[in-house]
Amino acid sequence: GQNIDQPTEMTATEGAIVQINCTYQTSGFNGLFWYQQHAGEAPTFLSYNVLDGLEEKGRFSSFLSRSKGYSYLLLKELQMKDSASYLCAALDSNYQLIWGAGTKLIIKP
Amino acid sequence: EAEVAQSPRYKITEKSQAVAFWCDPISGHATLYWYRQILGQGPELLVQFQDESVVDDSQLPKDRFSAERLKGVDSTLKIQPAELGDSAMYLCASSLGGEVGEQYFGPGTRLTVT
Q: What whole-number distance in Å separates Cα of residue B57 and Cα of residue B60?
């Protein structure tokens, strides 16, 4: 079956760095997305990786290892507004998105 | 900035009643998605349209749910009759089309079935 695993919840301190991991098992692979979702709101796009390596976008970076079925989202200089759920989603061979359950990130002052 | 529109934002209905949600995607976006999201879980795809055609409705409970996108623009998702377990956030998203595309989500409709 197809599966996405990510931690349920993480806690970090304002100003610090946090890494949210995601492992995936899909029928084929055509890329991996990260979305941010604040409570009660819709998901918003953060990043897309299809090649191995690190993609940096401001305070957020996303990494992919296709051989390991692994990705992570790295958030630097954490701000209180970064408190949200972070959803990992993999695109399978049929170009269908397989979604993880999300990681709830709690930022403490 | 163009956005996906959804209405209503909130809906409370009694079980066995009919309920309908509306979505207007970003202009020019050929692909439209309806998702259901239960609190603490990721979105679950209910139906995907490419223009007016259904591409995937394998997870849509067809005995009670229906979806249409008659002119390939806006779309309606209907539930009849609603059940207690249908309480969730219903999200609409659109993308330009093609095989790989960022999905843009609307604000969602929070459904509560009592």
A: 5
For residue A35, the tally of other CB atoms under 10 A from its CB is: 26
Alpha-carbon distance B21 to nearest alpha carbon in chain A (angstroms): 16
DSSP tag of B107: -
Q: What is the pLDDT of residue B99?
A: 67
Q: CB distance A102–B102 less than 8 Å?
A: no
**Distances in Å between the alpha carbon of B70 and those of B22, B23, B46, B76, B99?**
12, 12, 17, 9, 22
Separation between Cα atoms, residue B105 and residue B95, nearest integer Å: 9
Whole-number Å distance between alpha carbons of B20 and A91: 29
Minimum distance, in Å, between the CA of residue A69 and any CA atom of chain B: 19
- What pLDDT digit, counting tens, does each position of A17-70 carry? 999 999 999 999 999 999 999 998 999 999 999 999 999 999 999 999 999 999
